[in-house]
């Protein structure tokens, strides 16, 4: 970002996408049948859009702002927002970095495919790690207990399944709009 106009454009686009992500977070989260605290929704779409049109920093910033704003209505003592933020960044950052790099040398669809596959690994690994760390803390804060190691590992398995579903729900719509998004990206860069 070289000029104040670039900074203003970045802040404006990130602000609008963060607002949209927050609204989608409040309205569109569906609990998984096997674990009510694991939810699927479209709130990561704006972060991916930001990553495509403005770069990885925009996508990550949208994830962070969305989760900070969701803290005002949390029912997980902030643990759910930390987990959601880590998983969202685990998906958005690798996708937007790899998409941006491969887009220069290959077709949009090759870049999308490899970016998507790397983000699948990112979302599953980050989901497993963050939930393995945060779930015991969450249970302690709400006065619950983890019944057994088996229950804990079943929960982690549910986390992995949930994150794969979240990945599909988020990246399939992006595949449909990736070409128009690249035109927006080009327009934003040309006006600078």
Automatic annotation (TrEMBL):
| Subcellular location, principal | membrane
Q: Where are the transmembrane segments?
A: 9-27, 47-65, 77-97, 109-130, 137-158
Q: Where in the cell is it found?
A: Cell membrane
Q: Does the keyword Membrane apply?
A: yes
What InterPro entries does UniProt report for this protein, alphabetically? ECF_trnsprt_substrate-spec, RibU
Q: Which molecular function GO terms apply here?
A: riboflavin transmembrane transporter activity
User: What topology does it adopt in the membrane?
Assistant: Multi-pass membrane protein
Q: What does this protein do?
A: Probably a riboflavin-binding protein that interacts with the energy-coupling factor (ECF) ABC-transporter complex.
Q: What is this protein called?
A: Riboflavin transporter
């Amino acid at each position: 970002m070289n000029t104040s106009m670039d900074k203003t454009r970045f802040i404006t686009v990130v602000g609008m996408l963060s607002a949209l992500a927050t609204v989608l977070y409040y309205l569109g989260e569906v609990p998984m049948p096997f674990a009510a605290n694991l939810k699927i929704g479209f709130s990561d779409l704006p972060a991916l859009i930001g990553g495509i049109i403005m770069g990885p920093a925009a996508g990550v910033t949208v994830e962070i702002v969305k989760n900070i704003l969701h803290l005002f209505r949390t029912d997980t003592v902030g643990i759910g927002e930390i987990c959601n933020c880590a998983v969202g960044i685990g998906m958005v950052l690798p996708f937007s970095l790899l998409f941006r790099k491969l887009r220069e040398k290959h077709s949009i669809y090759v870049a999308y495919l490899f970016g998507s596959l790397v983000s699948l690994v990112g979302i599953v690994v980050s989901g497993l790690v963050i939930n393995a760390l945060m779930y015991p803390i969450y249970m302690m804060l709400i006065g619950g207990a983890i019944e057994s190691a088996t229950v804990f590992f079943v929960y982690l398995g549910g986390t992995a399944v949930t994150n794969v579903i979240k990945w599909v729900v988020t990246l399939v719509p992006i595949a449909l709009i990736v070409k128009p998004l690249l035109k927006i990206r080009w327009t934003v860069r040309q006006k600078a």
